[in-house]
Amino acid sequence: MLRVEIVLLLCGLCAFATAGLQSAGARGYLTCNGKPLKDVLVKLYDEDDGGVDDLMAKTKTDAKGYFSLSGSESELFTIDPKLNIYHDCNDAMKPCQRKITIKIPNRYIAVGNFNNKFFEAGTMELSGKYPGEKRDCIH
Predict the structure, then answer these.
(1) Which listed CATH number (3.40.50.300, 2.60.40.3330, 3.40.1190.10, 1.25.40.10) goes with 21-136?
(2) Considering the entire predicted model, what is its pTM?
(3) Could you tell me the residue ranges of all domains in the chain?
(4) pLDDT digits (tens, 9 = 90+) for 13-56
């Protein structure tokens, strides 16, 4: 009987270790005063309440202000993907960078390592203020 319990426990642990792989992605364009923003840092995280957020992917915008990124994370429950954008649009000489966080809806989460459900951010004009916008010196 002990052997059966051990086998069931090992099977359960294997299923637990691989069952939670999920992915998300986002893409869009960033502009400042109507002009494309090049080399803007964009990061995709899995937000963890009370802990350190898990970095899933990062990239920089190209010459047209375009970004596209996707990443995966293994979690027991549904991941909470968010997009952080760090920029200096209309920032003069202020220290650190402006940081905008966008929560990605659950319908853009895919099961497994491959993401085919991109959150379409569209064209984002960064000259204005966004709700919850902060400043970030270390990213």
Answers:
(1) 2.60.40.3330
(2) 0.84
(3) 21-136
(4) 444 444 599 999 999 999 999 999 999 999 999 999 888 999 99
Number of Cα atoms under 13 Å in the Cβ half of residue 61: 24
61 in Cβ contact with 30 (< 8 Å): yes
Report the alpha-carbon distance of residue 76 to residue 133 in Å, rounded: 30
Question: Cβ contacts of residue 95 below 8 Å, gap of 6+?
Answer: 135, 137
Any idea what DSSP says for residue 108? G
Query: How far is it, in rounded angstroms, from Cα 75 to Cα 21?
Result: 6
What are the residues whose beta carbons fall under 8 Å from the beta carbon of 20, sequence distance 6 or more? 74, 75, 76, 77
pLDDT value, residue 105: 97
**SS3 (DSSP) at 17:** helix
Q: Six-digit token pair at 11?
A: 């099977």
Partners of 136 in the β-ladder: 97
State the pLDDT at residue 49: 86
